[in-house]
Specification:
By secondary structure, the chain is α+β, with helices and mostly antiparallel strands. Among the domains are: 215 residues, Alpha-Beta Complex (Isoleucyl-tRNA Synthetase, domain 2); 63 residues, Ubiquitin-like (UB roll) (Roll). It is 33% helix and 17% strand. The chain has 31 helices and 31 strands. A hairpin with a 2-residue loop joins strand 24 and strand 25. The longest helix has 19 residues. It is globular, with a radius of gyration of 35 Å. The model has no long low-confidence stretch (mean pLDDT 93).
Length: 957
């Protein structure tokens, strides 16, 4: 029998026990559901017509979407949910109209993998997981507006995900207006001639396919041949995060190749500057802002064109255009689109044998090297390997400032995902280029004067020299000289020269790449796109939404020979021919026609890009969201210039992907006039992680943590000594503790208190089941201070509190209120504990005013016991919407403070004085103190330094 169920614990018939907690909690959860206690009203129109709602400040509080796992919750999962619930409850009690709810991000790979393994439809397993998780969360007493909950797999929800995709598809970014505009406005510009067609023809002279190609270069959602991680052994494309450093699949350990596949993309790069600049107005942790800034990666430099005979020009982006005279060769990414065009049939005369890789022709060399590079991940390609690999394409480009012919190589250390996929190599001043030049015996030229004694002959150097402080050398032609200039001035001068000569210009580049938006999966949102017989993509009309997922017999992607990089994925949707091949009237005046549906699905990020909007207006079948409702909850206001959710709580692991994608969608919807908020989340708070000890036997295998014994500082499982290390909590590590276990043994209020009391919310902390009992005993003492454990009667009295109790109470009210608002829940609990201990020690029945204030202080943290005690104190209204206590300043200020009196720097006296004492009064008291008089021993006084009310320092003459 546990300590909580000991004989002493259950001796009194009305003692607060786990059984009583379970009864109280179940009853009040049923009451809250029946009464709609947490339902937040929406404005029904102009707020001027709703004075009661207009008088209340609003607060929209959100948690990051949970995924309904089949394993259910462990005690680490609800940390953030409990925190937002405590905060939301406090905000309600301080007069706010609070919107707090929770849905489920239910599309994605886990359910599909389970379907592949068991044959269970992903919807069945997902809905069962949602049901289980909902029950677990309900048991915690979370105050969610349940009318607003949903799952992304509901067709009523993903209808609008598809609708937003179509808004993005039917938009382009107008760089002059710096916003998205409907694609129809771009078409009108082409038709009128206001905007010239890229190839100079009239818009009317273009075929339908040609027009589609032109518009595809502008659309914010577009299809293109994109380089992807292709795993034939799994039959699917993988995200970078799913590929190991050695270029194999994380699941199954299959080879992964780079392949070009037709994929949907989001042109998030069009918003790079706005995504960067608008970070300044967000109340986010600086670490998260920094991660986004680094991911967007804005850098200023120049675009430079290197002409290639018969193939146009190779364009590079460089931030060191000042070193252009030192470019002695070029390197393209193996996937670069110009590689085939510039590769000649035979090696040029005099080609260095090292450059050919032992191949008879450039084409053979390029093909072999491309295959070799395709077998590496981006991480592996970027690793600082000692041996640089590459191959000469057989082509030469012209350095535009020197006129020199420089050889063009392909090498895997250059990626298409960065810059233009091409670099000008300045080996004397770049470490990777230096190593490559040494390996391939390429020339080097010093153009930045070294500040050390290495000299200016790179052939004698051990490594490259790079500096932003040095002067330029060897950098002149008949028209321009950079010699003697510093880097900043040299950059400016060469950039002007490039523009004047039409071979480049100053520009800004971003590390950010467009968002790959296709997945070769079943369990995701279908694209509302069909293709005609010419392969032109057409959007479905809104009347055909939602496009629902069809039934399929096999959820598995088709797998191939793991080493066959030339295969193509086959998606599960493509096997349903009746769904794929359809005859539709799209309402475009062309009547019914045959079409082929898109058989990729959207990535799991799609549903979480806009879910904050659905919480606002979850049953709207006519609009994405009612404009007045969106304006009320998320619109811009003082201190929130771009609008957004008032508080968004979740893990720091979503710093870049989810948060960046959601910001992008929000900005497109804002530009198109669908929402007033240009940002989805104004304030972001990252909670820490609850960790747990992992115990492993001599084989390194995790053993059940609950069955480990501690003896003399060592740990044993079934008599065998095991190791212990702090790590994650999880089922596979056999250290998971479920909230159901803790609720069953102590009650949900105890679990809530313990998780909030463990430490600051934004730091990780170790779970210790043995320590939970401390918060359980706090609740028992709270109960005992108000309810007689033998009779069950309330023991409060209608008398005035003693002065010391009033001071303890109002200090607690002041401190707890500030801590709640600042999300310092651990210190709030410490203050409640201190007050409750004071009341316990004071003895006797509590004055009613003190008891009621104490219950209201506890209500956000432990809502079930607070509701029960509030009702027993005679109130008929729920405690949820009562006013939070307000401290009386007269009792918050300490009655006296201790003042230290020093003579010649040594403490000679301590005075108990009023905090409001003046300097003159304090000086007089200090000089009159007997101990001070004795210490001075008749000496005169040169100076008295007074720092009322804490310090007096007397300096004798």
């Amino acid at each position: 029998m546990s300590e909580t169920n000991s004989a002493a614990d259950v001796a009194a018939p009305h003692r607060y026990t786990a059984a009583m907690a379970a009864d109280i909690e179940a009853r009040w959860q049923d009451f809250w559901d029946a009464e709609g206690t947490y339902e937040a009203p929406n404005p029904t129109g102009d707020l001027a017509g709703d004075p009661e709602l207009a008088a209340k400040p609003k607060k929209f509080i959100m948690d990051m979407f949970p995924y309904p796992s089949g394993a259910g919750l462990h005690v680490g999962h609800p940390l953030g949910y409990i925190a937002t619930d405590v905060f939301a409850r406090h905000q309600r009690m301080t007069g706010h109209n609070v919107l707090h709810t929770l849905g489920f991000d239910a599309f994605g790979l886990p359910a599909e993998q389970y379907a592949v393994q068991t044959g269970t439809h992903p919807r069945i397993s997902t809905e069962a997981n949602i049901e289980n998780m909902t029950a677990q969360l309900r048991r915690l007493g979370l105050g969610h507006d349940k009318r607003r909950s949903f799952a992304t797999i509901e067709s009523e929800y993903y209808k609008w995900t598809q609708w937003i995709f179509l808004q993005i598809f039917n938009s382009w970014y107008d760089t002059e207006a710096d916003r998205a505009r409907p694609i129809a406005e771009l078409v009108a510009q082409f038709e009128s001639g206001e905007r010239p067609v890229p190839d100079g023809r009239d818009w009317s002279a273009l075929s339908a396919a040609e027009r589609a190609d032109v518009l595809g270069d502008y659309r914010l959602a577009y299809a293109s041949d994109a380089p992807v991680n292709w795993s034939p052994g799994l039959g699917t494309v993988l995200a970078n995060e799913e590929v190991t450093a050695d270029g194999r699949s994380e699941r199954g350990n299959f080879p992964v190749f780079k392949a070009k596949l037709r994929q949907w993309n989001m042109r998030i790069t069009a918003y790079a500057d706005r995504l960067l600049n608008d970070l300044d107005g967000l109340d986010w942790p600086e670490a998260i802002k920094l991660q986004q800034r680094n991911w967007i990666g804005r850098s200023e430099g120049a675009r430079v064109d290197f002409p290639v005979d018969g193939a146009g020009s190779i364009t590079v982006f460089t931030t060191r255009q000042d070193t252009l005279f030192g470019a002695t060769y070029m390197v393209l990414a193996p996937e670069h689109e110009l590689v085939e065009a510039i590769t000649p049939a035979a090696w040029p005369e005099g080609t260095h044998p090292v450059w050919t890789g032992g191949h008879a022709t450039p084409a053979e060399a390029v093909t072999a090297y491309r295959k070799q590079a395709a077998a590496k991940s981006d991480v592996e390609r970027q690793a600082e390997a000692k041996d640089k690999t590459g191959v000469f394409t057989g082509a030469y480009a012209t350095n535009p400032v020197s006129g020199e012919q420089v050889p063009v190589f392909i090498a895997d250390y250059v990626l298409m995902g960065y810059g233009t996929g091409a670099i000008m190599a300045v080996p004397a001043h770049d470490a990777r280029d230096f190593a490559f030049a040494r390996a391939f015996e390429l020339p080097m030229r010093c153009v930045v004067e070294p500040s050390d004694d290495r000299g200016t002959d790179p052939s004698t150097w051990e490594d490259a020299f790079s500096s932003y402080e040095a002067k330029l050398v060897n950098s002149a032609n008949d028209e321009i000289s950079l010699d003697g200039l510093g880097v900043v001035d040299a950059k400016a001068r060469i950039t002007d020269w490039l523009k004047e000569h039409g071979v480049g210009e100053g520009t800004v580049n971003f590390r950010l790449r467009d968002w790959l938006f296709s997945r070769q999966r079943y369990w995701g949102e279908p694209f509302p796109i069909v293709y005609d017989e010419e392969g032109i993509a057409h959007p479905l009309p809104e009347s055909m939404l939602p496009l629902e997922l069809p039934e399929v017999d096999d959820y598995s992607p088709r797998t191939f020979d793991p080493d066959d990089a030339d295969t193509q994925p086959e998606t599960p949707l493509s096997r349903n021919a009746d769904w794929v091949n359809v005859t539709l009237d799209l309402g475009d005046g062309n009547g019914p026609k045959k079409y082929r549906r898109e058989t990729n699905t959207m990535p799991n990020w799609a549903g979480s890009c806009w879910y904050e909007l659905r919480y606002l207006d979850p049953n709207n079948s006519e609009k994405l969201v009612d404009p007045a409702i969106e304006q009320y909850w998320m619109g811009p206001r003082e201190g929130q210039p771009t609008g957004g959710v008032d508080l968004y709580v979740g893990g720091a692991e979503h710093a870049v992907l989810h948060l960046l994608y959601a910001r992008f969608w929000s900005k497109v919807l804002h530009d198109l006039g669908h929402v007033s908020s240009a940002e989805p989340f104004h304030k972001l708070y990252n909670q820490g992680m609850i960790q747990a000890f992992v115990y492993r036997d001599s084989r390194g295998i995790a053993v059940p943590a609950a069955e480990v014994e501690e003896r003399d500082g060592a740990y044993y499982y079934e008599g065998e000594k095991v190791s212990r290390v702090l790590g994650k909590m999880g089922k596979s590590l056999k250290n998971a503790v479920t909230p159901d276990e803790i609720c069953g043994e102590y009650g949900a209020d105890t679990l809530r208190l313990y998780e909030m009391a463990m430490g600051p919310l934004d730091v990780s902390r170790p779970w210790d089941t043995r320590a939970v009992v401390g918060q359980y005993r706090l609740l028992q003492r709270l109960w005992r201070n108000i309810v007689d454990e033998d009779s069950g009667e309330v023991t409060v009295v209608d008398t005035e509190p003693a002065e010391d109790t009033l001071r303890a109470l109002h200090k607690a009210i002041d401190g707890v209120g500030g801590d709640m608002a600042g999300m310092r829940f651990n210190t709030a609990i410490a203050k409640v504990t201190e007050l409750n201990n004071h009341l316990t020690k004071a003895g006797g029945p509590l004055p009613r005013s003190v008891a009621e204030a104490l219950v209201l202080l506890v209500a956000p943290l432990a809502p079930h016991i607070a509701e029960e005690l509030w009702r027993r104190l005679g109130h008929t209204e729920s405690v949820v919407h009562q006013d939070f206590p307000v401290a009386d300043p007269a009792y918050v200020v300490d009655e006296t403070v201790t003042c230290v009196v020093q003579v010649k720097g040594k403490v000679r006296a301590r005075l108990e004085i009023s905090p409001s004492i003046t300097d003159a009064e304090l000086e007089a008291l200090a000089l009159a103190d007997p101990a001070v008089v004795a210490a001075l021993d008749g000496a005169g006084i040169r100076k008295v330094i007074v720092r009322a009310p804490k310090l007096v320092n007397i300096v004798p003459a």
